[in-house]
Amino acid sequence: MEKKIIIVTAPSGAGKTTIVKKMLASMPVLAFSVSAATRTAREGEVNGRDYYFMTTEEFHTKIDENAFAEYEMVYAGKYYGTLKSELQRIWDNSQIPMVDIDVKGALSIKEHYHDKALTIFIQPPSIDALRTRLSERGTETQASLDERLAKAQYELSFSHEFDRIVVNDELERAYEEVKNLVNDFLNIK
Question: How many CB atoms lie within 10 A of CB 101?
Fold first, then answer.
């Protein structure tokens, strides 16, 4: 099987995770690529399922070992990365990794894997819609909301560098669009 990768990215709150979960549930050929992270687990998150939770020291050791396909410091002091061993685990299982990561990480993987990677940017209908979605989560302080919105503005400036842009103005339509893009890329009829 060809070693392809599906990369989905978006500003926080654009609906990326919801679309990725729907894709994984409907397409058994895809497998979620679990990212490594130095942040603490949120309630209900499980190490090895949601993220590989690491200390900053463990993460830096992995960097030194060249163990990442990509990594970024996404927020101050918070590192996220895609382990090469995680991609290989999925390929060894005859599946295609679906990577749900930030914009810079997505572009790094694309640079590394070129035409073997499909990059999809999930775009919110507007910054105001994004503010509403993030506020409704109830997990953000005003400072963290402002930080996420500033980061979203920055990330939106890179959208043109992705293979495809999908505007998530209506979840079911956006999901169908992503599914069709993935099917085309994997030559699934």
Answer: 25
Contacts of 18 (CB under 8 A, 6+ apart): 171
185 vs 81: CA distance, rounded Å: 24
Nearest Cα to Cα of residue 29 among 183, 178, 184, 149: 183
Report the pLDDT value the prediction gives residue 83, as an integer from 0 to 100: 96
Q: How many residues does the chain have?
A: 189
At 119 the three-state DSSP class reads strand
* Candidate from 17-31, 49-63, 74-88 with smallest mean pLDDT: 74-88
CATH of 5-185 given 2.60.40.3080, 3.40.50.2300, 3.40.50.300, 2.40.50.840: 3.40.50.300
**What average pLDDT score do residues 22-44 get?**
94
